[in-house]
Amino acid sequence: MYKVEAKTYIHKTKIEIEKKSNHTTLIKDFFITFILALTNPVTILAFLAIFAGLGVPKGEVNSILLVSGVFIGSALWWLLLCEFVTIFRKKIEEKMMVWLNRGAGLIIFGFGVTALILAFYEKGPF
After folding, report:
1. Domain boundaries, the chain
2. Rg, C-alpha atoms of the chain
3. How far is CA 48 from CA 10, 53, 68, in A?
4. N vs C: which end of the chain shows fewer Cβ within 10 Å?
């Protein structure tokens, strides 16, 4: 069932995809993604670990600068990433995209297998 759904999504025409994206849905998608990113437990734990390791700045101005820096850095990262995708999206053919997805899947699978091997055969981080 999953393969059929994935294959159907991959083979949608550009017209079908472009019809669905208008100004309202793009803004809605942005806010949904923003809320998901803010509530992502991994992101929260990563920032807690960074702040615990580096120390939390003292004073209102330093705290505002830190939060502003994180926000501006994240926003710049997403803008650059979106611009990169926009530029290269039209240059990559569907066949190449399939191979890129397969390669990414193999890399993720490899990380998962490595994590399992390390978890069972070596002492964990605790």
Report:
1. 92-126
2. 20
3. 38, 8, 16
4. C
